[in-house]
Amino acid sequence: MTEIQQTIEYLREQLRHHEHLYHVLDAPSIADAEYDALMRELKAIEDAHPELVTPDSPTQRVGGKPREGFVKLPHSSPMLSLDNALNETELREFDARVRGLLPNEEFHYVAELKLDGLSMAVQYHNGQLARAITRGDGSVGEDVTENARTIRSIPLSVKHQADFEVRGEVVFNKRAFEKLNAERDAQQLPRFANPRNAAAGALRVLDPKITAERKLEYFAYFLFVDGRPALPSHSATLKELEQRGLKVHQGHRICTDVEALIEFCNHWEAQRDALPFEIDGVVCKVDSIDQQTRLGWTAKAPRWAIAFKFAARQEKTRIDDIEVSVGRTGALTPTAILQPVGIGGVTVSRATLHNEDEIERLGVQVGDTVLVERAGDVIPKVVRVVSQGETRRPFVMPTSCPICDGDIVRAEGESASRCINTNCPARLKESLLHFSSRGVMDIDGLGNVLADQLVDRGLIKNVAEVYSLTLEQLLQLDRMGQKSAEKLLANIDASRKQPLSRMLNALGIPFVGERTAQILADTFGDLDKIAHATIEELQHAEEVGPKVAASIQQFFAQDQNRDLIERLRAAGLSFTCEVRVKEQGKFTGITFVLTGTLPSMTREEASALIEAQGGKVTGSVSKKTGYVVAGAEAGSKLDKAAALGVRVLDEAGLRELLEGAN
Ligand code: IVH
Question: Do 111 and 242 lie in a common domain?
């Protein structure tokens, strides 16, 4: 091997190793930037020596050109589906059937998550990813190899040289799904109804570049050789899949009886929202392949497995009205007012309809009976029309703002209709609430009731005017005593000292939230520099792309926003801060989650200390979490940490770690 070949091989091995750590084990050991640097280095050498490029090089994930269509390919053995158990009784019946068919035999089950995605077979030939085939009709699927190559949790090459096939599920992360739909709104494309449809769309596009952007994940659950299970048990299969570098969801358990299965099902039904992707049930499989073979199959499903389906979180109800609310950016959001209906223990009386395009896509009108879905913390949404109302009436977007009567405009290329009156009271109220909220300018006491009064009585015409409120003005307001008025003024006063990053977030520039605001402040250190930066200069800041940069520039180009900035300057707010080079410290690459109340530090103080050492603080516990720092009344995050085996610290433990860091 020449020296160049050796360098190339070394870089590829490094990149494969880090891809595996990041995408399969959820445990990255280097920063994204370092990974990118390795990738660039390899790419540069390969560009100079194209004859040395191999299909399994990490640079070749998105290699293929858009195709004309998909080729159909037969499966090595049918990909059948599962029978369902819709409740505990049906699960017990399944267990009784299995017991009846295996008299006097010991056996146990493996329970695992039923991932709500698409099943796909992936074949390895001589240690190389050779084919990926969708389920299709179960006998014949579509060759989606080029697209599957872009999924980072699917290795392009494996150490194991003998041929084998993996079967598993392609899923779409819930957050990425929400983000994708928001982008599709902006591009006037129809929304995807759920993450599974989005995954199907991404896997079946003709251009692999699009698949790559969607960041799909693949979880493996079967390992076949010649169309048959390769190992004597399902549990051994899951271990071996991991050995071969594939991603296996860790939430599986051996269950020795039906009680344990039921407990597992109940546990995950309660925990499903905590997962980053959708699951719709639990799959229970007899572990031993010998016993599976003897139990056999019916025409369409195995007798050795069952899908326990979670209760649907969808209910039918009627739309009584469609209301429109005005957000901070003036965007009008239609909301369906529903006949109240209980869905999984919560009464739902409103559901979002997002925008006009979505109403059109759903074909929904007032008076229709619709299917409403509630998933986790997100606002309930209308899934589809079940039956049209006899006296249905179409929704018409108002032409003037329901709040201020200002003009409503729907800009070219946007799905949102907006009230363009920047002084619209609804927009002003929302802006004021955002400005004063926790984690932004932190003006305690300035909530909904007060914002309504301040705006309705004309005491505030733009957010900067909070800084010129007087005691006399406040005392005129309903239910405002001397003490609370003084307290509020003190809180307003204290907020002048908030750092630049908070103020930037408080301005409500579209696409500039807490994180981007922090990055901008750290990079430029001066509001005036940000306001005068060119689109190109703005993009020097990490994570700021053309869309965000354009939004920032547009914001500062508007007279009324410039006026707002001058008023804030006059009010004595912080316009500068220290420019910060990204902290490299002992905690670089380690993610912390804070939960509960710590005895002597606020959450912000603890975050600052962690970040000063290069650590990252996030809101939810995953396998990527390095430590959970828990204080008094820590809740479900602690359970989650225990379930995932994440280390838990108290404040003293954190301090110890920090001391060690210095
Ligand atoms: S086993 C014959 N395991 O659910 C064996 N399937 O209704 C069938 N699915 O088509 C597959 N998670 O798309 C199995 N852990 C899991 C699964 C799973 C999701 C899907 C799969 C299958 C459908 C069966």
Answer: yes
